[in-house]
Amino acid sequence: MLSFANRVLSRHSGRRLLSSVTQEIESIASRRVLNEKIRNLAIVAHVDHGKTTLVDKLLQASIDPTTVPSEQQGEGERLMDSGDLEKERGITITSKPTRCLFEDHVVNIVDTPGHADFAGEVDRILSMVDGVCLVVDGGEGVMSQTKYVVERAIEAGLKPIVLLNKLDREGGLAMVESGEVEVRLIIKILSNVFSCSLKTHPPHTPQSELFDLFCSLGASDEQLEYPTYYASAKGGWVTSDLSEAVDIVKGAKPGADVGMDNLLKGFLEHIGPPTGPALINDNEPFSMAATMVGFDQFLGRTVTGKVSSGSAKIADRSMFLPRDLELVNPDKKLLLPQAISGVFIYEGVTRTPLESGIADKGDIVTLTGVPDGIKVGDTVTLESNPVADAIMTPPLAPPTLSMDFGANDGPLAGKEGTIVQASRIRARLQGEVDNNVTLSIGASEESTDKSIVFARGELQLGILIEQMRREGYEMTISPPKIVFSEDEQGNVMEPFEEVTVDVDSEYSGAVMNMLTGDRKALMMEMREDDGKVRMKFEMPTRALLGFGPEAATTTRGERRGEERGARSEATSQSKYQN
């Protein structure tokens, strides 16, 4: 009798266990996000046009304070600029993803740097998004880095959304508003006559400059039909109606219908979901390009990217295919299997475990416990169901500057830092190169104890040096050198750049003479407005070395800015001199 009761109890316990497992599986499945419910986009712009502030406001608009803990909401301004150097300098150095939940959709947003020296960050981020939000300062209009990011987005076939920001600043609204009323009337008349929808803008406004830029870069008809929003990210309002924006800037109180929700709705409407079937297919081979690689002292090696196919979960054994697979491993054998220890996302500014625990196609996630040898650009896949080939990533522009790094062998060696060995300095540089595809390292011709670091600009090298100094490294560095190249005919080529300088009108002559003299700059444009002068030049990269401090001295600190055009733009258009 007791034996029979035990068998009955065991049978009932088995049913309860099976029911519990079934409920858990159904619960996990309900938390997985369908492909059609995902939107991936990057916030791109010229430096200091308001990208990071915009992301802050979008996060605040999407976070429900009743369900999200306060420590995940973040406080203050520039929440995404979490690094010490980013906070001190007020610039974005590294790209950072975050996640917004809005109207039953997942909106993955990536904040990108605006400075030309970190344009490589933009290059790799564009490979994992499906659209871009182009932020333009309404008072400045199209700048050099604006052209660069637009060109890259068009080449990648991404759908753009334009946001004219900082309209509440002096001069911002005037440029955007000028001539708009008359043009609207003309558009209405012509549309009625020809029974079609026309899109045009008055001359000499940010709208007309942007439209001309898209046309000159060969944008498709679909890309040219981009929506335009008017906003003040700092003020927390955005609208697609210019008249409404004008009223707000002139003193009208923003209504509840002009919040950041307008832009989030625009993302859902104008940026499509990741390509591919909407249904989840667990039998598809898993693949994800490593867009960002890092290290956590508790979780080990981390990799962030967009899942291109299939799905992966905790305990799956991950492997990777190098981006230069044909050179590293001609037989295409998968390398270094290791069990995935975690699947994470960024909610607000905090990294949290993904609720479903499964990285599905189309989503942007962070995997932990991946092989230590993985680098940016490599392809993550699974040992049980691997992909045949590595994911193709977009080519990067070549470096333009180099600098020698070596151990300090002088009489004061060891006075300023604790890490002085050449081998450890080289290992630190190699680790930086593994995580940053815009940097490369080589052996120095002067000494075996020195390494050459190739980069895209003075600021990028300066940031690297300062980071290493704060980590306790002591080293010697050489002056920056220009990286020359040769064309197919063997001619030595030199990179050129586009330079924009804003100064008070009284100093414009001095700055012009400084650039067009020994620096051999060619003036392309000059515009004066309300005592300020903006000048655009084309000049060799070597002529820019040391220009910033010299210009600041000449103008007594009144130089408003020296903005450099993206070097990859100069490379792609072959703007070189023999």
UniProtKB/TrEMBL annotation:
Domain named Tr-type G: residues: 36-275
Q: PROSITE patterns in the record, alphabetically? A: G_TR_1, G_TR_2
Name under which the protein is recorded: Tr-type G domain-containing protein
Checking SUPFAM superfamilies in the record gives: EF-G C-terminal domain-like, P-loop containing nucleoside triphosphate hydrolases, Translation proteins
Q: MF terms per GO, please?
A: GTP binding; GTPase activity
Species? Triparma laevis f. inornata
**InterPro entries with a match to the protein in the record:** EFG_III/V, EFG_V-like, G_TR_CS, P-loop_NTPase, Small_GTP-bd, T_Tr_GTP-bd_dom, Transl_B-barrel_sf
- Any single GO CC term annotated in Swiss-Prot or TrEMBL for this entry: cytosol
